[in-house]
Amino acid sequence: MTATAEEKMLTPAIDAFIEKWKKKPGNLIMILHRVQEEFGYIPRQAAFEVADALNIPVAKIYGVITFYHFFKLTKPGRNQIAVCMGTACYLKGGEDLIKECERILGVGLNSVTEDGEFSVEAVRCIGCCGLAPVLTVNGEVFGDVDTKDMKKIIDQFEGK
Ligand code: FES
């Protein structure tokens, strides 16, 4: 599938990035990181355009996206809540934090609220085990979180 100029999704900046990385080893991961940085996930159209640009099958791209936990196939919420489910956080109640998030927002794990404001995901250890249980919202770390704190944390980001 070749994208026409009108329906093209990749920005000139991403095109330039692809051009720079095109012939280097490990380029696909780097390029997909750049795409996700731009859109917050890997849109289907973008995956096809990257495949075109690198002259590789789109299946290879989906193989990478689905292998690495980091890549997202669906558009996340404007505010991304990531609850750590690494061992330390799990043992200190990470699962309860997820349940409380789901209860407050009315969505399941890996889903986005209807208004697109929040998405919730479980992630692996983020390296702050001493603060367990830990979650992040848009990359901001909250440590030693109790289920009672969840509403207050979420309210900080609502509508901002
Ligand atoms: S297990 Fe949660 S930060 Fe390490």
Helix content: 40-55%
Structural class: alpha+beta
The profile of the biggest β sheet is: 5 strands, mixed
User: Can you write the helix and strand succession as a string?
Assistant: HHHHEHHEEEEH
Query: Helix tally?
Result: 7
The end-to-end span amounts to 38 Å
- Would you identify the regions where 5 or more consecutive residues have pLDDT less than 50? none
> What proportion strand?
5-15%
Shape: elongated
Please identify the oligomeric state: single chain
Order of neighbouring strands in the sheet with most strands: 2-3-1-4-5
**What average pLDDT do the residues reach?**
92
Radius of gyration: 18 Å
Distinct small molecules: FE2/S2 (inorganic) cluster
Annotation, overall tally of beta strands: 5
Write the layout of secondary structure elements.
Blueprint: H1 12-21, H2 27-39, H3 44-54, H4 58-67, E1 79-84, H5 87-91, H6 94-105, E2 111-112, E3 118-123, E4 135-137, E5 140-142, H7 150-157
Parallel strand pairs: 1-3
Antiparallel strand pairs: 1-4, 2-3, 4-5
Helix pairs in contact: 1-2, 2-3, 3-4
Bound molecules: FE2/S2 (inorganic) cluster.
Residues 84, 86-89, 125-129, 132, 134 line the site of FE2/S2 (inorganic) cluster (FES).
